[in-house]
Amino acid sequence: MFSRRHFRQIGSSRLRRVTDDWIRALPREKSEIFESLVHRWERAFAMTSVALNDALSMRAGGELVCATQQVELSSVLLGRLSRSLISFCDSLAARARYIEEAPAVEPLSAEFFRGDIAQTAADWNTLLHQIVFGGRPRFINKLKILSSIIGRLDHEFRRAVEQISKAAQPSASWKMLDCLQYDFNTCLRESEIVLKSFLRSLPADQLAVFSVEAQNPPAKRLRLRPRFSRVPA
């Protein structure tokens, strides 16, 4: 038999929306964790973007050697941020299995991405969201797919930079970097959204442990995540 408390939790979960979680302010301690993580991610991505923009400007000015060096720096910086975000997704997926209240979740939207890699993965997330019931498995599925997209984008970014360094089809590779950066930025925004919804559901007595995990992610080699095939129409 289900208790009244159980039914109240189900009703609360159904009524909650991601937009509600995003608009409402978090309690002070949770807000501090959120702001700290987001600031770190934003700063890292800003450094990556500055390096890439400088590389593009140097290339436009004919400074090809300096442009190549600068774009290689942007790849290194993006790789560091990718590893941090993948560890974050893994940590949230693990903790979400055990917290009592499932975080609010909406699937990734293909229209917010430009490249085939991210769009195809977003389509799969939408499909899974429709056929998998329950907020918890939906939330975990989104984290896994988001993590996969981040790993794939980083891999493709590094491959494009390698092509530029080898002077193999440099024009196409330079053009690809802009699309990859755009989609990575979308993944970063999605990470911020899932973080806030997760913190909304995280019990207060788990905040201290989660804060330590989030601020000091385990060192991992970036592993290539599974590819996604285009979802049939």
Which terms would index this structure?
globular; mainly alpha; 233 residues
What topology does this entry show?
Elements: H1 4-15, H2 18-23, H3 28-60, H4 64-96, H5 116-131, H6 135-165, H7 170-201, H8 207-215
Helix pairs in contact: 3-4, 3-7, 3-8, 4-6, 4-7, 5-6, 6-7
Q: What does the model show?
A:
- By secondary structure, this protein is mainly alpha-helical.
- The chain has one domain.
- Helices cover 74% and strands 0% of the residues.
- It contains eight helices and no strands.
- It has helices at residues 4-15, 18-23, 28-60, 64-96, 116-131, 135-165, 170-201, 207-215.
- Helix 3 (28-60) packs antiparallel against helix 7 (170-201), helix 4 packs antiparallel against helix 6 and helix 4 packs parallel to helix 7.
- The radius of gyration is 19 Å and the shape is globular.
- The model is unreliable at 1-15 (pLDDT under 50).
Short description:
The protein is mainly alpha-helical.
Summed over residues and divided by their number, the pLDDT gives a mean of: 86
Query: End-to-end span in angstroms?
Result: 42 Å
- Total strands: the figure is 0
What are the low-pLDDT stretches, counting only 5+ consecutive residues below 50?
Answer: 1-15
How many structural domains? Answer: 1
Put simply, the count of helices is 8
| Overall helicity | over 70%
Strand content: under 5%
SSE-based structural type: mainly alpha
Using only CA atoms, what is the Rg?
Answer: 19 Å
Overall, the morphology is globular
Task: Please give the largest β-sheet.
Answer: none
Give the H and E element order.
HHHHHHHH
